[in-house]
Input
Amino acid sequence: MTATLVKEASPPAPSHPDRARRRRLRRRGRIVAVLFVLPALLLLGALVVYPVLFSVGRSLFDASGTRFVGGENYLEMFRDPVTLKAVRNTAIWVVIAPTLLTGLGLILAVLVEKIRWATAFKLLLFMPMAVSFLAAGIVFRLAYDEDPDKGVLNAAVVSVHDTFKGSSSYPTARAREGDGAGLTKEADGSYVTGADVSPGGTAALGLVGVAPKDLPGEAAPASPAASREAAPDEVGGVVYLDFTPGGGGEPGRVDEGENGLPGMKVEALRDGRTVASTTTGADGSFRFTGLDDGPYALKLPAENFAPPYQGISWLGPTLVTPAIIGAYLWIWTGFAMVLIGAGLSALPRDALEAARMDGANEWQIFRRITVPLLAPVLTVVFVTLVINVMKVFDLVYIIAPGPVQEDATVLATQMWLVSFGGGNDQGLGSALGVLLLLLVVPAMAFNVRRFRRSQR
Output
């Protein structure tokens, strides 16, 4: 009899219900995560990815969007002088604005630590961040107004200027044509008598063009001064407003009721050279004494008729870009200060105290310890501001007046103007948008990489 060995089958491996449950939970967690992320992904795709892809595609077509032109729009960008100016202005913004903001933020963050009301000071500097760029642009457009009666900056500049150098009281005054004194206007704006005056003689120099209400308060009637005779060794006369209130009077003659022009500078000329100078009194009278015998011409210098100082043309072609950058600094200085201040508060105090104990002064501590330790924070602030200034649009569009819009334009404003602001060339505008994106992406990638490195 043959024995048959039957090998029993090995029993099945025991199941692990915990592992299966964990797999189900992970699967469910992934589904929940996708459901939570899906709205953000949809918004990202609709508001970022699709516009970028559409702009890239649109930049390859002409203004009408029907004819494919390839890279022609990109070549046109660098042939257009206005676009080149926009690139130049954007480069100025990128170099100047972030550098100044980072430096100001660092200085203010260090100084704020030294004052008692640090929180209130930070709040005051950070407050402009709560103001929209539209409102800030309107505020600075008014502040930069060239009219000193409207623009606060020019009002301050004019006040300082007039403190040290007075302005003329008679910018509109002029000689009456065919007057008796024969005043002739020179090329420099001054007036010279045609007839010479010798010592012992007098001259009545009549001017018009000044409203009686604009006369200085000390102005007195000119008729008594006109009737006064000069001594044998002097030349006298009167400078007066040749206008009789209420009408009447004879042109070229001092009539009753006509006022003198006080504070008017008068010069005596001989052979074309100034030999004496004086200023008229309240009644417009003047006297030159101690003159040698001979004929003299009388001159009213151009400074008597100089227009009043109007200040600085902040929004002119030369200063419009620095002026707008100044408005940008006002808004963003608080941002830079707060971020750098947060980094400053995290610095190891023992290093600073050790440096002080070793005899280092505050400048050495700032330069050799504070700044190197703050380098990562300063870099992040600088790169963030670079990204921001590349996209600046509101301030430039609002502050810069129409005639100098081209002088202040940057890539963002040029993109809008070309596409929607009258150019109606969305192909070229899309190309400008792609260029702006290509300039911003490296800075963004640098910032993201530094953020990830700091997380590790």
Remarks:
- Residues 1-7 have pLDDT under 50 and may be disordered.
